[in-house]
Amino acid sequence: MNVLHDLDPQERTLEDVSDCVSDSDEYFGDNFYDDWDNRAINGIADLQTVKFKELTADQIRRLPFPDRSVAFSFYNLYAKMNGFSARKSQIRRNVNNDVTQQAFVCFRQGFRDLCSDNDAARRKREPKPTTRCGCGTEMRVHIHEETGRWIVSYFQEEHNHEMLDDMLTFMLPGHRKMNSAAIDQMNMMLKVGIKTPQIYSSFVHTAGRFHNVPFLKIDMYNQIDKQRRLIGGDAKACLKYLESTAAESPGIQLDYHLFGDVVAFDATYRKNKYMCPLVVFSGVNHHNQTIVFASALVANENEATYTWLLEQFLDAMKGNKPRCVITDGHGAMKKAIETVFAGAYHRLCAWHLIRNATSNLSNPTFTSEFKKCMLFDYEVSEFEEKWENLVSSLGLHDNEWVCDLYARRKMWATAHMRGHFFGGFRTTSRCEGLHSMLGKFVHSRHNLRDFVEQFFRCISQMRSREAQSDLQSIVGDLVLQSPLHDLERSAANMLTREIFLLFRPMLSRACTLKIRSCTYTPTFEIYTLSRSGSLHKEWRVSHYPNEEIYKCSCMRMESLGIPCDHVVAVLVHLDATKLPKSLILDRWSKNARSRVHAFMDNGPFCWDSMVTCRNWMLSDLCRELCLLGSAGDAEFSELRDKFQNEISPQDDCYRPDWTDVEYTSFFWDGDGGSDNFDMEIPYRTGARILLQIAQRNNLDVDVHLALGFASHYGKLGTTEYLVEEENAIAFVFRKI
């Protein structure tokens, strides 16, 4: 007794075909088995020698195949050479539930189940064009019980539609497929931030022409989407990825230990696909480069959320609070900082202030003068005078935003923040540069896992840049340019190159200063200096000889960590030949990381995956071999045969376990009784159709996909599964 599982109610059943009879010997005639072995297709490799365009229907009817998969591969290649594509249709089983017959049809066979006019009116999208037109082209194969081979029992080659040109046939879904090598290459490019269109262009360039690539750009998007869906819950996948990168966290904590005296919080960067703002905790390293200590995706931006966020950050950094913090001025963030980071000096980011000034007033004159008031190193009295002149000239005394800005002047004016160390973290270039770098990796369309993964790529590039700067600071000596060669050489030997270039102008400016007077006390000396030709402005430098400490009234050393020209002038007066250690901050020195080298055996960056590294090394070797093998036909054939001979045994030896397959799932075997319901479903059946099938047959709708291997059997816990056909998707449902 045969059991038929019909997947499409509109498809005709095998019993309706009058040409099919049960006695195959009577149907095929006495001479069917003559020369049986010579004309047989014994595997996929034999398909390379078949001239599909010259095949006749009678020749096809006489071909035996080793299994159904080879038969379908043959028919699909035949379809490709004749302007259409094939798909699998109905199967027939015997009483033992073994497949005994399989039908392959034209991709335009059958008709679409059109929705009613009312349903069509409610559609938000335009319906896809109808491709099915009831084409009757079909090839049916059934198993020969004596030999176990599959033979053609029915073949119909007449179509009711036009055939496609060869240049168009390859674009049909049935002829498009991304193999595992293409998927791996695509994923590696995606991980380094290359966009999908550029990846597809790379495949086209490698293949020579776009029709030499066996898939389209849409297939890459579909593959990416499938990977995201099958990888599991987005939040769980994100947490799993973070756990896998936990080994890198000590490096971030060490960065904070060295350079965490100044921390900037920026929550103005773009949001991800869940509309969650990205909060970045950043600082500045010994090369005056922006580094990132931590980041967070927050659901909202209220005080409670920011308080929790800062507490978690403080806990991750072993309770070490920063001395100074910089924010975008968000009110909730300000209150949270006062609660969690009590005692830290709070500064408003200059970039955000300038942007707000432009949006609130739209007055270029105000914006230009406001920059000077905020960034120039004025005395407090000078600042107040210039601010009053600016507000009066533009008539902004009654402007609410300007009044609120002035009330917060101690949080943004350099004149009022003198003496608080911010490491130069005030200019607009830092936020703009960080946003620009993040924009190369992080996009709003990313889900949680992709968002976090790409953010780590950005961090990795930042650390790579730091390593390059370390090399530049150590290798090579800068040409001395100032008149004070000894002091310049001393600074160049101790400071990193970027910081030294900020200090070097102080040497030339010191030559324009004169010491007007000197006052001596038992413990320190006070030098009064002024600029040559400008006696109205004076600076006072205090020198403590016992500790070799220098303090200037300009407080540049306390604010930036770089000696000012006034201190340098005093050093010249004292005939000093090198900078004292008190004027060299550890965070600006070349040896800034020397205290923690024991914990950084892997350097500032490391490989993400040893498997990926091996893959690239083998790919480079194979690329050279391929160049040699493509020089001529003989070389090509020889190398191709060697590759095929090597791939087969390696594939059998290193085939991954079922639980290690990239797209893995489990499917039910019920309770092992007679209530099991079993059906095979075409590979491209959509999730909506699967749900309809499950509901129609009263099946559990908890359905999972599984990509199977040939005759693969496995067991996971109490769940058993069997997949009979390579690259087939099998489903086993459990009866409700």
TrEMBL record:
The lineage of its organism: Eukaryota, Viridiplantae, Streptophyta, Embryophyta, Tracheophyta. Residues 539-575 form the SWIM-type domain. It comes from Arachis duranensis (Wild peanut). This is Protein FAR1-RELATED SEQUENCE 5-like. It comes from the Eukaryota. One of its GO terms (molecular function) is zinc ion binding. Keywords: Metal-binding, Zinc, Zinc-finger. PANTHER family: OS01G0519700 PROTEIN, PROTEIN FAR1-RELATED SEQUENCE 5-LIKE. Pfam families: FAR1, MULE, SWIM.
